[in-house]
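We treat protein structure as text, and this decision shapes the records that our systems exchange. This encoding replaces a full spatial description with a residue-level series of whole-number codes. Below, we set out a record of this kind in full and without editing:
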Amino acid sequence: MRHARGRIVRRVARLAALGGLLLGGTMVTRAVASEPPDASAAPRTLARTASATGAALVSRLGTDRTAGHWIGADGRAVVAVTDAGAAEAVRRAGATARRVRHSMSELRSAASTLRAAPRVSGTAWAVDYRSNEVVVRGDRTVSGADWSRLAGVTEGVGAFVRMERTEGAFTTRLNGAEPILSTAGRCSAGFNVTDGTSDFILTAGHCGPTGSVWFGHGRGDRQVGRTVAGSFPGDDFSLVEYANGEAGDGADVVAVGDGKGVRITGAGAAAVGQRVFRSGSTSGLREGRVTALDATVNYPEGTVTGLIETDVCAEPGDSGGPMFSEGIALGVTSGGSGDCDEGGTTFFQPLPEAMDALGVRLIGSGGQGADAGTSATSPPGAAAPGASAPARGVEGETLLARLADRRNVGPGLLIIAGSLVALVATRWIQRKRDRKAYRRHYSATWG
């Protein structure tokens, strides 16, 4: 009986050691495989620090000596400066200085001149910090005569205004995370917000005027709420009050497709060069980078200013969809050109500005509460805004996700080493027992 128990213990020990080898091997293999393909996906803490450093330097040196800041490929802050003294101040602060010819004051003056010119539908412009230019784009709907007139305006501004044609047409993406429907079309539930008394959906303003009634997806017979406030054109945001006044469980989660979602922990300002994600009910989860801030777009319905410009794709039906990075809410989808087959440009209404204007805050956070310019997110985990479902975003990682973290290479190797020691030890004990048994048998035979 005692020998049988010993055999069982040894077998269990061997199985545990083999399991440890398998677990450690999985951790190491998945951790190595999860290394980012390029250095541009900088660690989150580095990118947040870089954005804060760049913003502080621009604020201290002023718009006459700087021309914007962005996150470089190495994750460090890059600040455009116009003189040697400013460049030295930037380097002392640990950031990279880029000497440019035109200051932010000049670039903003050029943008103001464009805004004052006769409006041309199908055009957009934004300041490109990297090239130190104001880039004016015209879609396929802009006639040759209108394009020539706009070119005349830019010639009077200076050589730092660049004009280029773009494929497709700049349109609002009417028709998001979770789809919501009204007689005006289909939009998305962007972020759940509250004023402390009632809960709302913050979505795009072009989705529908005040009084629009919204229904859930599916048969469309479940009333979600009614638009109670908004701004479009000029801005592009609106507020849909929930029919029962409450968003429900999981209100701090946005859907990313396949029943999954990411938990939102705060709101912040976007930074040029930042890697971001956008979710929409038409095209699902897409990623890209912020290419410009304070963009102006002349939609057919009117002009919207102060937008975030990105190279993330979007399609009709994605309006109002959430844009975020590392669980930080950045904006809601406004419009753009192109599609997710050919690519394109998509603009977003900044979230902090919209929340300030509407007097609301994100559900589940104390307010905005985030550093500007958070960095790359890892693809998120599970649920939907306003739905009762678990989230596997920033706070709710699964066990598998934890094991796949590349930081677990060291622990994985330790588990493998411990399992090998356990296997050797059980084998050594087995051989020692076998030798004792053989000696006893030999002694009995020749006794």
Summary: The chain has eight helices and 24 strands. The chain has four domains: 2-34+408-446, 44-99, 104-165, 171-399. Helices lie at 2-33, 44-61, 84-92, 104-116, 144-157, 351-358, 399-404, 409-446. The two ends are 26 Å apart (CA to CA).
